Amino acid sequence: MGIMIEPQAPTARMQSTSRAQAAPQTSDRLIAGRGTPDADWQAWGGLAALPPVTVAELVPPYRRAIIVAPHPDDEVLACGGLLQQLHAQGTQTVLVAATDGTSSHPGSANLTPSDLARLRPQESAAALQTLGLAPQILRARLIDGQVRASMDQLHTLLVQLLRSGDVVFVTWRQDGHPDHEACGLAASLAARACRATLIEMPVWSWHWAAPGDRRVPWHRACRLDLGAEELHRKQQAIQCFQTQLNDDPSTGQQAILPPHVLARLLHPYEIYFT
């Protein structure tokens, strides 16, 4: 069940900061075509060489985990294994859903924005249930595809939510998708203001980047290993996002999450930038 927080008006400081630090341009991080094959990533020894990390190291006992998801499905794609491990160690977890993902099928006769506003949060809830979770969910209801224009609102919501010592997980500030980058920037500013810890998650980076890519902060990267059952539940949870897994015959648009995209996100580990 979603719980709404009505944020106060953005502060003048945040308004000034967001204008000065607008989300980075993505011209060199294009999400187009099939992207870097997963086989290339698996053949690169850099991933195996990343330092391992435990869930207790990422989120020490008695601290909260705050997950900021730009769209319904990002919370599972980026950190579905982490969420299970947080639950197992008894960590209080809050999911901040920035948008309801209503712009994923432009012009579709089968999935209109009103359909998506209903279906995508339902898919997210079903996926979390598949993972065996029932976190507190805060829905910001920002406009899908326009999070950058609402960064002040998201920042204010997060400042109201965060406590000193919280650990905030959010999509990387240079992930390539404008909404992912805007969420990352808003969360980074809020975490700094509230003395919370920021941890970033690559999602679309695996598409446009290449092994050893100097644009990626590998020096901050660590690897959280998943057990076989945790990976299996994550794979099952992703199947709940049927609006994203199927082609749209009304527009000819291919699935948002075809097999070659999922292949890059379904491994027995997850990568985090600390």
Describe the 3D structure.
This protein is an alpha/beta fold. Helix content is about 40%, strand content about 15%. The strands form two sheets. Strands 1-5-4-3-6-7 form a six-stranded parallel beta sheet, with helices on both faces. It has a three-stranded mixed beta sheet with strand order 2-8-9. Helix 6 links the parallel strand 4 and strand 5. Helix 5 (about 75-90) runs antiparallel to helix 10 and helix 7 runs parallel beside helix 8. The longest helix is centred in the middle third of the chain and has 18 residues, at about 115-130. The radius of gyration is 18 Å and the shape is globular. Residues about 1-25 have low confidence and may be disordered.
Quick take:
The chain has 274 residues and is an alpha/beta fold. The chain has helices at 12-20, 38-43, 45-48, 55-58, 74-88, 113-130, 151-161, 178-194, 205-208, 228-238, 242-245, 259-263, and strands at 2-3, 52-53, 65-69, 93-99, 136-142, 167-171, 197-201, 221-225, 269-273.
Main attributes?
274 residues; disordered N terminus; alpha/beta; 3-stranded mixed β-sheet
What Rg, in angstroms, do the CA atoms define?
18 Å
Number of helices: 12
**Average pLDDT, to the nearest integer?**
91
Strand content: 15-25%
Give the N-terminus to C-terminus distance in angstroms.
30 Å
Number of strands: 9
Q: In terms of per-residue confidence, which ranges show pLDDT below 50 for 5 or more consecutive residues?
A: 1-25
Helix coverage percent: 25-40%
Major sheet: size, sense and barrel closure? 6 strands, parallel
Q: Choose one word for the global shape.
A: globular
**Class inferred from helices and paired strands:** alpha/beta
Helix and strand run: EHHHEHEHEHEHEHEHEHHHE
Adjacency order of strands in the biggest sheet? 1-5-4-3-6-7
